[in-house]
Amino acid sequence: MGKRLASLARRRERAARLAPRLAELYPGLEISLDWENPLELTVATILSAQCTDARVNAVTPALFARYRTAEEYADAEPEELEELIRSTGFFRNKAKHIRGMAARLVADFEGEVPRTMEELTKLPGVARKTANVVQQNAFGEVEGVVVDTHVKRVARRIGLTAATAPEAVERDLMKVLPRDQWHPFSWRLIQHGRARCDARKPDCEGCEISDECPSAFAVR
User: Fold this and answer.
1) Residue 145: CB partners within 8 Å, gap ≥ 6?
2) Quick check: pTM over 0.90?
3) What phi and psi values does residue 127 have, to the nearest 5 degrees?
4) CA–CA separation, 143 and 130 (whole Å)
5) Per DSSP, which regions of the chain are E strands?
6) What residue ranges define each of the domains in the chain, with the CATH number in brackets?
7) Catalytic residues
8) Other CB atoms within 10 Å distance of the CB of residue 50
């Protein structure tokens, strides 16, 4: 960021000023992944690691038509599953995670995706980011803040955290945001990261919140 992190009180004030402005810019809260049930959302979110949501959405229609239950994913032939998800990248590891996640669902949760953070993060391939996405979107429950690469980048640039590890970024955002903003604020940071705050060449000139960003015009 290039500037010293402000006090917690000032970061809270900045977040409070940004929340309504981001809400005006990005009023919708609908996730961009396509899904119809918690299992599909869990699988899609695992696939979204280091991959665009658009690419995941191109893959999942055939995937979801082939495998409809946790039992079917758990029993999937690795080569067939890998081929269906190949274009999402890291397909061997993702297939392994999906099969392992589904096997744990069958063994411990009667084939159903659990609702709590503690249970979700026991599933193979499901860290806090995926668990937060599933909780918030499938069940309407909020125990944390989704931190993907966009949230981490934008939150650091706008001075709400200096952390680099996702869980540390999440803790910082949970401190500066009221609980009712944990879900909408993080989703809007994702949208802003896609629209304006690119990793390599952020559009500071077009950025609607550059006046609140200590990194504005400094990232080149």
Assistant:
1) 132, 151, 170, 173, 174, 177, 182, 183, 185, 186
2) yes
3) -95, -170
4) 12
5) none
6) 8-29+145-212 (1.10.1670.10), 38-139 (1.10.340.30)
7) 129, 148
8) 10
* 154-203 residue pLDDT tens: 999 999 999 999 999 999 999 999 999 999 999 999 999 999 999 999 99
Chain position carrying tokens 């609908």: 30
Find the length of the chain. Answer: 220
Q: Are 167 and 128 in contact (CB under 8 A)?
A: yes
> Hunting for tokens 């931190």 — which residue is that?
147
Backbone angles phi, psi at 59, to 5 degrees: -90, -35
| Res. 1: pLDDT tops 70 | no
Query: What is the Cα 123 distance to its own chain's centre?
Result: 17
Kindly provide the b/e burial profile for residues 68-101, where b requires at least 16 CB atoms within 10 angstroms of the residue's own CB: eebeebbebeeeebbebbeebeebeebbbbbbbb
Q: Which amino acid is at 28?
A: G
Per DSSP, 167 falls in state H
- Closest by Cα among 199, 189, 152, 217 to 15: 189
| Helices and strands: H and E segment counts in the chain | 11, 0
Rounded-to-integer distance, Cα 16 and Cα 177, Å: 8
| pLDDT tens, position by position, 11-68 | 999 999 999 999 999 999 999 999 999 999 999 999 999 999 999 999 999 999 999 9
Here the tokens at position 18 are: 């940004």
